[in-house]
Amino acid sequence: MKTGHFSKFPIVLALLLTLRSAVKQIVAVDGMSGTWELLLNSTGVVAMHVALTHLNTVVLYDQTSSGRSAYHLPRGLPCPSVSTDADDRKESGCWAHSMEYDVATNTIRPLSIRTDTWCSSGSFLSDGTLEQTGGYNQGARRIRYFRPCADRNCDWNESSSTFLAEGRWYATNQVLPDGERVIIVGGLNVFSYEFIPKSRDDEGRL
Ligand SMILES: *[C@@H]1O[C@H](CO)[C@@H](O)[C@H](O)[C@H]1NC(C)=O
Ligand SMILES: *[C@@H]1O[C@H](CO)[C@@H](O)[C@H](O)[C@H]1NC(C)=O
């Protein structure tokens, strides 16, 4: 038994080596061989969501109730709102839960996201703005925008007057062919869809 097992070993090894050189050849043929390179040790926030913008920057954001991140927000920027919910109270300070990574300069800057984006969803509009909706707790009906800018001065903006018709957790967003409107479908235990912006108040309500 043991001998049989060992006698197979050279065959397996030969197979593996053949496979390895075959893979190497495939990689070489299409010129796509690459390696991972560590550019930064930490982004400072957890990348629950990651989106590449048309200005070659990457926006990362996490749930706001995850406590401290690596960045205390600079003075003057608004703190994420603190609700009465125990989960959200953990975010007692002004900590960034979103950041923008500039691929060209390999630099990062913290952004200020205000309400909980945990399990939120989003879609890019045709002008490159990331429209981001829903989430958890007081973030569940929020509509947020991140409009990338070349001067790196832009930040999230969140509508304080327009809300989703229903709280949406894990919804699905899809930009429509006009590039300006987004259909948002479902969410946990939410069996409806809606459009942002709406053409009538009750548009999309089931
Ligand atoms: C990551 O951290 C290690 C240990 O401090 C350091 O040696 C290395 O240079 C850092 N790498 C980058 C890309 O910053
Ligand atoms: C937020 O961004 C949206 C989309 O770019 C824009 O229409 C709106 O005017 C912005 N609001 C604020 C307060 O900047």
UniProtKB/TrEMBL annotation:
Organism: Vanilla planifolia (Vanilla)
Glyoxal oxidase N-terminal domain boundaries: 48-203
Coiled-coil residue spans: none
Signal peptide bounds: 1-28
Record protein name field: Glyoxal oxidase N-terminal domain-containing protein
Gene3D superfamilies in alphabetical order: Galactose oxidase/kelch, beta-propeller (2.130.10.80)
Highest taxon of source: Eukaryota
Short name of any one Pfam family annotated for the protein: Glyoxal_oxid_N
Alphabetical UniProt keywords: Signal
